[in-house]
Amino acid sequence: MYRLRFFLPIFVFLNFFKGYLPAQNLYFPPTIGSNWVSTAPATLGFCEERVDSLYQFLDATHTKGFLLLKDGKIVLEKYFDAFTQDSFWYWASAGKSLSGFLVGQAQDQGLLSINDATSEYLGDQWTTCPLVKESLITVKNQISMTTGLDDELPPTPTVPNPDNCLDPGCLQYKADAGTRWAYHNAPYHLVHEVLENASNKTIQQFTKQQVLDPTGMKGAWFDHIFYSRPRDMARFGLLTLARGVWNGDTLLHDSQYFYDMTHPSQSINKSYGYLWWLNGQGSLMLPGLQLILTTDLIPSAPDDLIAALGKNDQKIHVVPSKGWVVVRMGNASGASGSLGGAQVPINFDEALWIKLNALVCNPVAANEVSNLYEAIQVLNNPTTTDWEVIAPQSTDGVKVFSVGGALVGSYEGLGVGVISVPSAGLTPGIYFLRVATERGIVMKKVVRL
Fold first, then answer.
1. Counting beta carbons within 10 angstroms of the beta carbon of residue 412, is it exposed (0 to 12), middle (13 to 18) or buried (19 or more)?
2. Is it true that the peptide bond before 382 is cis, omega within 30 degrees of 0?
3. Partner of 432 for a Cys bridge, out of 139, 195, 353, 401, CB 3.0 to 4.6 A?
């Protein structure tokens, strides 16, 4: 039985639809065949030479497939090397966002509640936590990355990758559920087992029934990783842009779940919903670091962007205010820096949005730099004296943060050129430089010897 919510409080209704109004008149491609209506880039004011520059950037950053949709219609579509429209590729962790949607459908249909204890679906002792602690872990904790399970276990000869290990011995207590955010693959992978036990279907069957067949997508899960063609990825982005409705067919009725999925799921990492990454939140945590960064996910992108992000720069960007869906498949971009690490790299996202923002035929300042992360460089790193920041654009300031997120230095109004940032008095270790420019914010990892 569907759990319809007919009488949402008016403030929830208004908040939910704020920023989503442009997505009302959408085009949906047929579920059978390869026909897909396109619209000329010029209708969006794009310059041909800027589009060519974008494609050169994508080619240079090892992209295989790229699409940009406007209100469901294809504006840009480009494939590189031997990759084609019909080639299959992996989503990596971008598939987590598809799982988040599936969980919402399962709750919508009364198969589970995200507030249920995970042990209701996996049984007791699915972890090695004391039962009183295990019982605190809910499905919501799994999809918000707040299980409290230890994501820092060292590898061993028998378990070389404990982050992906589903054995109870690898699922150990670190903190009470809901009190610690950590990007941890193993509890996420078990979301699929929760869905299978709740629905009495395999994850393949449930995904096919709930999402693939109604939208015309093709794809499959292999070892918790989803594989598809680029246009299938774009179809899922379009389904998300349409808030769970495909051409009049409502696949996710629970508007409150959709709202919660695409807004902060907890107060620790405000840039994370239910297996979706969120822009415009003002603070951010990334995999592998217990550090809160005072920055947006993608400073140059619209604030309402939500993103499915995966290893080696697999991307789905959904921007309701623009009616855009942006898809990128390929190998690791090689974008400079290490924000997000190998699991969820985001330096490429910033560079991409600088390029996307430049597509419109407006005059461009002579000192415009296409890749902000490449433009801002840090020399003399590691150092025992000063880091040297090269800033070819106007720099409002540089702040120094510890790995724990504490502000340990601030240098304002530094302008353009070579900026010396002293490390004197800092304990040897890893720090982050936050460089604020007129084009956005760059985070650079540095080392004090």
1. exposed
2. yes
3. 401
Degrees (nearest 5) of the Cα angle 343, 346, 351? 150
In the block, tokens 């297996």 appear at 275
Q: Which phi and psi (to 5°) does residue 438 adopt?
A: -70, -15
Lowest mean per-residue pLDDT among 4-13, 205-214, 399-408, 427-436: 4-13
Instruction: With beta carbons less than 8 A apart as the criterion, state whether 255 and 242 touch.
Output: no
| Amino acid at the residue 202 | T
Is the distance from CB of 298 to CB of 281 less than 8 angstroms? no
- Helix H or strand E encompassing 349: helix 347-357
* Sequence-ordered list of residues with C-beta below 8 angstroms from that of 225, at least 6 positions apart, any chain: 90, 91, 92, 95
Residue 282 CA to residue 449 CA, distance in Å, equals 30
Contact 4, 253 (CB under 8 A): yes
- In the three-class reduction of DSSP (H, G, I as helix; E, B as strand; rest coil), residue 251 is classed as coil
pLDDT tens digits, one per residue of 158-195 = 999 999 999 999 999 999 999 999 999 999 999 999 99
- Angle at which helix 48-60 crosses helix 347-357, to 10 degrees, equals 170
Point out the least confidently predicted range of 229-243, 309-323, 342-356. 342-356
Residue position matching structure tokens 């070819």: 392
Q: What is the dihedral of CA 245, 201, 225, 208, to 10 degrees?
A: -40
